[in-house]
């Protein structure tokens, strides 16, 4: 099928199947079931994992098809939020670093929405400095591992079947050298998930407790004690997928987007038009930057720290958009049920400056690795982890 025909088919399929940001359903469980049903149909129609390798369950097509589908998908909003960590971070990490057995076991189910994934990196004492994490994994006699510790801010974990876990496996070496990445079954004995409500009133993330959680052999991703380089791979995918919205959903249903705001304000006012034009320019510039990074990545050019620039630009855009919405919508911006959920979108905006790495950390990375400015001093680089005063260690 030629590209035009492919895009036409995608448009027809989306028009018939895209149900909106939240799939229909009276309860959260109904909404989840509807989202899973949508994801299965998306996969079966050939539109999930378009460029992922066919041998592991992807569609094995080219960027051209992916762009064609993304163009059509940007006109609608898909109920893919709950799958975003798996599609944007865990899945790409497994494609890059997983064993053939891990890929066979997980990729297709992830792409079909049968399994939901979460990313278990941050801890109460280790966020920006995630290499200071204290969750421990110790080997068991049968070649498996036993995990104890706590994670926090884990998005979608209340629905997750699997997580990519970063845990400490050696305390006698410097902090970046004693970490290992694991696939953990979120339904295993000893895993406790507690949802945390944010200021939107919804639970977007959770705290997780691991009490003697057994991980069977065959679930280490990459090499034992090489988890830091695996984590860097995940974080790169994370920044690109956050800034590009995983390439599947547009901003159509976002009440603070350009398209939504222009409908509720007086566009004959030149100051209003100024604000809207700036929003449009910033959004468009970021979309083009993301498209460039995505094309480069798929062509094998490593975007490196420029992924952090895209993530920083998105955080700044979302917060600019929220400020503009407040100034344009007036009292409607704080009426929680009013203006199509505008207050919810405004309340969610600050999270974008934290999740996936804070703005300050993005600036550090850009200064250090894009602009070649002197790096931050790192006094703990060669000190064994057990001798550091971090987290609850004293
Ligand atoms: C909506 C949301 C979803 C998230 N989802 C996940 C998830 O799914 N999985 C996961 O593992 N984590 C997740 N996180 C956690 C996120 O990665 C951390 O919140 C983030 O890395 C910051 O860590 P922290 O909250 O511990 O803040 P801290 O690291 O304690 O930082 C506090 C402040 O100090 C600043 N700061 C810290 N170090 C430096 C420095 N070296 N230079 C300059 N300033 C510095 C920070 O910028 C920040 O302003 C999520 C967070 C949010 C908000």
| CATH fold title of the largest domain | Butyryl-Coa Dehydrogenase, subunit A, domain 1
Mean pLDDT: 89
Low confidence ranges: 246-250
Question: Helical element count?
Answer: 11
Strand content: 5-15%
Give a quick account of the main beta sheet: strands, pairing sense, barrel closure: 4 strands, mixed
Domain Acyl-CoA dehydrogenase/oxidase C-terminal: 225-371
Family: Belongs to the acyl-CoA dehydrogenase family.
Domain Acyl-CoA dehydrogenase/oxidase N-terminal: 7-114
Cofactor: FAD
Short description:
With 394 residues, the chain is α+β, with helices and mostly antiparallel strands. The protein is 42% helix and 12% strand. The protein has eleven helices and eight strands.
Question: How would you describe what is shown here?
Answer:
The structure is a single chain. With 394 residues, the chain is an alpha+beta fold. It has helices spanning 3-17, 28-44, 63-73, 84-97, 100-111, 227-244, 258-264, 270-298, 306-329, 342-348, 359-370; strands at 117-120, 136-139, 145-152, 162-168, 179-185, 191-196, 205-215, 220-221. The protein has three domains: 3-111, Butyryl-Coa Dehydrogenase, subunit A, domain 1 (Orthogonal Bundle), CATH 1.10.540; 117-225, Butyryl-CoA Dehydrogenase, subunit A, domain 2 (Beta Barrel), CATH 2.40.110; 254-357. A four-stranded mixed β-sheet has the order 1-4-5-8. It has a four-stranded antiparallel β-sheet with strand order 2-3-7-6, with no helix packed on it. Strand 2 and strand 3 form a beta hairpin. Helix 4 crosses helix 6. The longest helix is centred in the C-terminal third of the chain and has 29 residues, at 270-298. Residues 246-250 have low confidence and may be disordered. This is Acyl-CoA dehydrogenase family protein. Keywords: FAD, Flavoprotein, Oxidoreductase. Its cofactor is FAD.
């Amino acid at each position: 099928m030629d590209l035009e025909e492919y895009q036409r088919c995608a448009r027809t399929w989306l028009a018939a199947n895209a149900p909106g940001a939240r799939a229909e359903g009276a309860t959260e469980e109904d909404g989840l079931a509807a989202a899973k049903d949508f994801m299965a149909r998306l996969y079966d129609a050939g539109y999930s994992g378009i460029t992922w390798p066919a041998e592991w369950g992807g569609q094995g097509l080219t960027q051209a098809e992916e762009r064609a589908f993304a163009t059509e998908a940007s006109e609608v909003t898909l109920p893919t939020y709950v799958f975003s960590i798996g599609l944007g971070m865990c899945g790409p990490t497994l494609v890059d670093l997983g064993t053939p057995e891990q890929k066979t076991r997980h990729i297709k189910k992830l792409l079909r929405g049968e399994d939901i994934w979460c990313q278990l990196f941050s801890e109460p004492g280790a966020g920006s400095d995630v290499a200071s994490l204290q969750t421990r994994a110790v080997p068991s006699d049968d070649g498996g591992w036993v995990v104890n510790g706590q994670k926090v801010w884990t998005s979608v974990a209340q629905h997750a079947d699997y997580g990519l876990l970063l845990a400490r496996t050696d305390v006698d070496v410097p902090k970046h050298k004693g970490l290992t990445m694991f696939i953990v079954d979120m339904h295993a004995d000893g895993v406790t998930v507690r949802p945390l409500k944010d200021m939107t009133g919804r639970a977007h993330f959770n705290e997780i407790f691991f009490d003697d959680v057994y991980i069977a052999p065959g679930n280490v991703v990459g090499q034992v004690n090489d988890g830091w380089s695996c984590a860097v791979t995940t974080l790169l995918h994370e920044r690109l997928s956050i800034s590009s919205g995983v390439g599947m959903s547009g901003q159509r249903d976002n009440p603070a987007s350009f398209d939504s705001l222009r409908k509720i304000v007086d566009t004959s006012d030149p100051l209003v038009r100024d604000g809207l034009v700036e929003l449009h320019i910033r959004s468009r510039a970021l979309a083009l930057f993301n498209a460039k990074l995505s094309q480069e990545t798929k062509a094998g050019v490593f975007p490196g720290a420029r992924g952090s620039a895209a993530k920083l630009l998105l955080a700044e855009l979302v917060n600019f958009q929220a400020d503009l919405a407040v100034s344009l919508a007036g009292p409607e911006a704080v009426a929680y049920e009013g203006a199509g959920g505008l207050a919810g979108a405004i309340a969610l905006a600050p999270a974008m400056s934290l999740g996936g790495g804070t703005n300050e950390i993005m600036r550090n990375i850009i200064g250090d690795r894009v602009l070649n400015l002197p790096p931050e001093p790192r006094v703990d680089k060669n000190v064994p982890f057990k001798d550091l005063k971090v987290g609850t260690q004293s």
